[in-house]
Structures are given as C-alpha cells and as structure tokens.
Amino acid sequence: MSPITAEQVSSLRRRTGVSISAVKSALEEAKGDEEKAIDILRKRGVAQAVKKSDREQKEGSMFLERSGNKAALVHLACETDFVARGDDFQNAGKALAKTAIAKGTDAAKAEAASVMPALVSKLGENITLADVVVLEGATLGTYVHSNAKIGVMVTLDPSTRQNDSVGLASSGQVPSEEIAKDVAMHAAAMAPKVVSPDQVGSDAVEKEKEVWREALKREGKPEAMWDKIMIGKEKKFREESALIKQPFVKDATKTVEQHLGGAKITGYVRLSVT
Question: How far is CA 55 from CA 21, 96, 168, 175, 235, in A?
Fold first, then answer.
C-alpha cells in the first residue's frame, strides 16, 4: 500500500473533525479508502462532522483584505446565514484573508484545512473555504457588497487614465483606482462572466445554439436562414456575458469599455454566495 499522504489526511479531517492521528490510523487500516476510513471512525465513536459534510452550503460571506496594490478575496461557505453572521465565522474568514494576502492562497488553504474541523464541531454546520483568490496590480479596484454576499476585484492597465470624454471634470484626469472601483461595483451588480466577448467559452455558445435552433423551429423560420440569424444571436450573447460590452450601470448610454476611456482590464475576479 502506498503511504498515506497529507492531502488524504487533510480531506478526511475536513469531513470528520477528528485528530490527525485518528484520521491517519483509520486511513492506514482502510488502506487509503476514505469511505472505509469514515466507517472505521464511526465504529470507534470518534467521527463528529462527517454527516455535516453532505449538507448544502448555500450561505456564507466574502472577506476582503487589501494591502497597497494587492488584495485577497475569500469566500467562506456555511449552511445558514445565522452562522455566517456570527463572530466565530467572521473571525475565521478575516484570518484566512489576512493569511492569503501575506502568504498566498496555498497558505490560506492549508490554514483552512487545519482550523475548519474545530470550527465545524463548535458551530454545528458544514463550513468550508469555497474559494480564495489573490490579485495584484498597480491599479486596483475592490468592492464587497453591503450584505457580504458578493465580492469583486479588478485591475487596470496603470498607464491609462480616464478623460473628460466621459463627462468627467474639465481637468480630464481621474485616478485610475476610482475607475477600477466603478468597474468592480458594476460587475457586482451585473455579474459578467468574462472580461471580453472572445473569452466566452465555446461550450456555452453551443449550448445556447441548441436553444436558439429549437426556438427558430417553433417560430417557423426557414432553416436556410438559421445560420445567419444565429450569428447575430451569438454576438449578442457574447457581449451580454462580457464585462467591457455591458451598459455601464452609472450611465447606460455608455458601455463599460467606453467608460474606461482606453484603460485595459488586466485582472477580474467576482465571487458570490449562491
């Protein structure tokens, strides 16, 4: 049998909430089979959180930590909003965000693997680190919605500044960070999946095409026209999914791209509690 790895131990600890030694012993007895190891721990009467691991985590919070031109965004997930608003949960999320910005995402994941079993046992819910991302750029905009359910980070090309072509002050200059925050707030509201139309995946487009074909058939459109019609539908679908092509929420007469005034989005992250 291959040696039990740290990843196997970490995974079973997250599911059961028991000590490293108990987890390792059970995995060794089960020859690395996690499900068999769970049965062993249950028979020994030491598994505490395994039943919780199967429950859905539809609640949680976003945690943002920022230092200069770098930011870390953490999505900590749980089962109920009551737990998400509690001090223990909030303190854990904030600590993970601090670790992520100071030491990186791998360090935050390792810390979560270490502290989550005890938190699960204390709060009585399945709690996991759903996502952690670190973004860095000379021009950084961040936004977490007031309910802490949505978080966005955006970086822009720092060499470009907005100008008065978008109705700004006559000086023609606005700090790019302010523009980046505007874009982050827009993304929080409009939930674009990608930055530009060409980044929309072909699988997503093909799935939509199946829907369009059925709709065209029901409408009685001649099949010879379908390809031409779907070219326009695909263009619209890609643009609606893309951040830079969406009408800007603060001024719908312009797209986000026009509001940027030439600035290029170099990084974009949007996380949400779903």
Answer: 26, 23, 50, 45, 40
d(CA 43, CA 27): 14
* Residue 47, domain CATH: 1.10.8
Per-residue pLDDT tens over the stretch 97-131? 999 999 999 999 999 988 988 898 889 888 999 99
Quote the pLDDT of residue 42. Answer: 75
Residue 185's CB: how many other CB atoms inside 10 A? 18
Whole-Å CA distances, 70 to 92, 184, 269: 20, 15, 13
Task: Indicate the helix (H) or strand (E) that contains 135.
Answer: strand 128-136
Domain count, the chain: 3
Domain co-membership, 26 together with 81:
no
Q: Is 266 among the domain residues?
A: no
User: Higher confidence at residue 216 or residue 162?
Assistant: 216
Does residue 178 sit within a domain?
A: no
Rounded-to-integer distance, Cα 244 and Cα 264, Å:
9
**What is the structure's pLDDT at 163?**
43
pLDDT tens-digit profile of 138-189? Answer: 789 999 999 999 999 999 985 444 443 443 332 334 337 889 999 999 999 9
227: CATH: 1.10.286
- Torsion angle in degrees (nearest 10) through CA of 128, 134, 140, 144: 0
DSSP 32: T
Containing structural domain, residue 28: 6-53
What is the pTM for the complete model shown? 0.74
